[in-house]
Amino acid sequence: MSSTVAATATQTPPVAVTEPMANRVKKRLTSRTASIISLLIAVIWTIPTFGLLLSSFRPEREIKTTGWWTAFTNPSFTLENYETVLFGTSSTQLASYFINSIVIAVPATIFTLTLAAMAAYALAWIDFKGRSWVFIGIFALQIVPLQMALIPLLQLFSNGAHIGSITIVPDFNLTGTFVTVWIAHAAFGLPLGTFLLHNFISEIPREMVEAARVDGAGHGAIFRKLMLPLITPALASFGIFEFLWVWNDLLVALTFTGGTKDVAPLTVRLAEMAGSRGDRWERLTAGAFVSLIVPLIVFLSLQKYFVRGLLAGGLKG
Amino acid sequence: MDFVDWGPKLFNALLAVAVFGAVVGLLLLVVDRAPKRGHDRYQLAVFLLPAVVLLAVGLLIPAIRTTILSFTNAAGDFVGLDNYKWLFTEDEALITIRNTIIWTVLTPILATGIGLIYAIVIDKARTEAISKTLVFMPMAISFVGAGIIWKFMYAYRGGGNEQIGLINQFIVWFGGEPKQLLLDPPLNTFLLLIVMVWIQAGFAMVVLSAAIKGIPADIVEAARIDGVNPWSMFWQVTLPSIRGAVIVVLSTITIAVLKVFDIVRTMTGGNFDTSVIANEMYTQAFRFREPGRGAALALLLFVLVIPLVLYQIRVLRQREETR
């Protein structure tokens, strides 16, 4: 499109020479203003992260006494902060929190994705009474902020459920285990996931599904052999979304893990460090980057899917 | 590095996924061999029941219980509207509501405005892809990470020492007096919401950039041939054409802002008059052991979010109809 614009601009016959000249000057000025504005915003948006990244490689004493911008005139770098954070003594290291983040995020994403895909398939291709009502119900649950569920859900996990003296759900002693975090994330991720995947699954041509049915395939076989390969791009989009959401989450993790080293993810630990050891910048800077590296890799390598997920209507929270 | 406690954890997670996968896979195999009578019902149960049960137990029933909880006190006795009276009369709660209003008014406008300007100035530039990635990157990182990044920007050192935070250094360079920026209300609330603007501008930029590229080329061409200057081009062509997208972005960011928790929690913990509804909800329910007040705050959040989501659904549906 830009080439056609340029072509028409150059092909304009020079009828009044002064007019296009003025236009051209103006155009160059606007494009220069545009460049300056875009550069300014890009720099302002990048500097905070850059400053933290640079600082994470500076010696502790220097981080605490001089600004990171002085490292350009007086360079002095070290990997010590990362050593402390990754391999240090048990009170400083973040390795086990990093593992916890993985142990929380990967299964939570897989569970949510599987259940959402199956529910979306049922809502799109299995006929039953009240189907549209179930769909509207799941859709409507997107409105409910997860804050609405936190208190009773924590009570359920720690006490079980009772009506009077009758126990409906016994106390499984799940408090402070990964299971609670997985269940909570799966429940909170399902409405959006089902909705997005349903949009995709319901657009598969009816003839394809019908042909498979005529061949005698049941829903189980159709889902496995026909649907899954077809909806892989949609699964990737929502999967990345859900993974980043769970990896970056603080509220759910803080509520259900109780912040112990056994189950708490990186975000919980970092938020705690920022609060209680707000001046230990040598650990905070390196620690923050250890936690940022996974989402950044996922994001940079799969940006296309991530953007597609965003444009499809997903901004969960 | 103690591998001792990593191994079992990773193994358990792997086991959980494997068992889950095996159960689902087996069900999908078995369901096609279900007895002919009630065949459909078995299939429906396998596909839909897990999600429905999980949603009921994890979201629907808790939400109803939270509503009931908001009318009880810490001991669990029914207290009528006491929690709501607290919410709308006590100073601490009123500051929370005031801050939430400041956040929801300023953040969406600033983020959308900056995102829109950026989307326009980089449109069709040679460096468009990399420019987008730079501004979009904050979207990928956690609010906690963003909080730490900006806490470092706002860092302060007293006693005439050299500054380590860039903002205070700028204040010094311009001849000002450095200060504890985050301890200073009401300035600190604005400094916190800048972090959210920093994160959400990338989202606004990506969505609006896609909308700008969707404007029919002939409209832009016609305006250009008419000699419309960039300023009126923006107001008369670009903005009217992407009006729908702008509204969706504004309302989406507003919903995200209403629920903002991590930034406040990481940077000030809600102290120094910076609390917002979502943060106060957590603090009341889980720190101060006042689940009734926490529930009332959650309900307020819910009520504030409803009209925005309904509006979005309407816009989405209109868009679907015109497609």
UniProtKB/TrEMBL annotation, chain A:
The ABC transmembrane type-1 domain, residue ranges: 98-302
Bilayer-crossing regions: 34-54, 97-126, 133-154, 174-197, 226-247, 284-302
Keywords linked to the UniProt accession: Cell membrane, Membrane, Transmembrane, Transmembrane helix, Transport
Membrane topology: Multi-pass membrane protein
Predominant cellular place of this UniProt entry's protein: membrane
Compartment list: Cell membrane
SUPFAM superfamilies: MetI-like (SSF161098)
Pfam annotation, one family: BPD_transp_1
Family according to the record: Belongs to the binding-protein-dependent transport system permease family.
Record's protein name: Carbohydrate ABC transporter permease
Species of origin: Cryptosporangium japonicum
Automatic annotation (TrEMBL), chain B:
Membrane protein topology class: Multi-pass membrane protein
Highest taxon above the source species: Bacteria
Keyword Disulfide bond on entry: no
Record domain ABC transmembrane type-1: where: 97-312
Annotated TM spans: 12-32, 44-64, 101-122, 134-153, 190-212, 233-258, 295-313
Keyword set, alphabetical order: Cell membrane, Membrane, Transmembrane, Transmembrane helix, Transport
InterPro entries referenced in this protein's UniProt entry, alphabetically: ABC_transporter_permease (IPR051393), MetI-like (IPR000515), MetI-like_sf (IPR035906)
Cellular localization per UniProt: Cell membrane
Broad class of the protein's primary localization: membrane
Family: Belongs to the binding-protein-dependent transport system permease family.
Protein name: Sugar ABC transporter permease
